[in-house]
């Protein structure tokens, strides 16, 4: 996307499996918002998508949940290569598989205090993640840098 704004679903999703491919340009930053409560996109849960090849792991690394949960490893491919990401949201559980590696496996119920992660570190969210909507919109974030998405598929789960 290039200056086109966030691209979101018309309908809301609760339990789902999202599968897509993405190719980040050098220095790109984006994300996939899931279960957004309204069209203002706030509050949100964002799975980070960006150019992170060769970098360490933080709470802002691709495949992690922005500012709250670092991925277990940085499994992104070199800049300019296609990556495959699968996000599964089922109840309070969220899993992210990046290029065949389970990088995030979290239970939102563990985030029971606003502005605080279970490890005691701070986050920027004024709501406890356990209180986020269990059903909402999904969107691809336009953060102003070049990134490509393809083969985006969403399957509702029971």
Quaternary structure state of the chains depicted: single chain
List the helices and strands in order: EEEEEEEEE
Task: Provide mean pLDDT, rounded.
Answer: 92
Number of helices: 0
Structural class: mainly beta
CATH class: Mainly Beta
- Work out the count of structural domains: 1
**From the alpha-carbon coordinates, what is the Rg to the nearest angstrom?**
14 Å
For the sheet with most strands, the description reads: 5 strands, antiparallel
Beta strand %: 35-45%
Task: Name the helicity range.
Answer: under 10%
Q: How many individual β-strands? A: 9
The termini sit apart by 31 Å
Q: Which fold does the CATH topology refer to?
A: Jelly Rolls
Q: Could you give the order of strands across the largest sheet?
A: 7-6-5-2-9
Shape: globular
The parts where pLDDT drops under 50 for at least 5 residues are: none
CATH homologous superfamily annotation: Exo-inulinase, domain 1
- Would you identify the CATH architecture? Sandwich
Topology:
Layout: E1 7-8, E2 16-24, E3 29-36, E4 45-50, E5 83-90, E6 93-98, E7 101-107, E8 137-140, E9 147-156
Antiparallel strand pairs: 1-8, 2-5, 2-9, 3-4, 3-8, 5-6, 6-7
Brief descriptors of the model:
158 residues; mainly beta; Jelly Rolls; 5-stranded antiparallel sheet; globular
């Amino acid at each position: 996307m290039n200056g086109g704004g966030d691209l979101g679903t018309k309908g809301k999703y609760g339990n789902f499996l999202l599968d897509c491919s993405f190719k980040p340009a050098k220095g790109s930053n984006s994300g996939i918002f899931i279960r957004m409560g309204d069209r203002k996109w706030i509050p949100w849960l964002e799975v980070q998508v960006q150019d992170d090849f060769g970098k360490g792991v933080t709470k802002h690394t691709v495949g992690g949940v922005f500012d709250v949960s670092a991925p277990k490893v940085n499994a992104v491919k070199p800049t300019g290569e296609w990556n495959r990401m699968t996000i599964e949201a089922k109840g309070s559980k969220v899993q992210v598989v990046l290029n065949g590696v389970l990088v995030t496996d979290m239970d939102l119920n563990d985030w029971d205090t606003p502005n605080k992660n279970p490890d005691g570190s701070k986050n920027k969210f004024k709501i406890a993640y356990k209180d986020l909507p269990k059903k909402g919109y999904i969107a691809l974030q336009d953060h102003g840098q070049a990134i490509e998405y393809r083969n985006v598929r969403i399957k509702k789960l029971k």
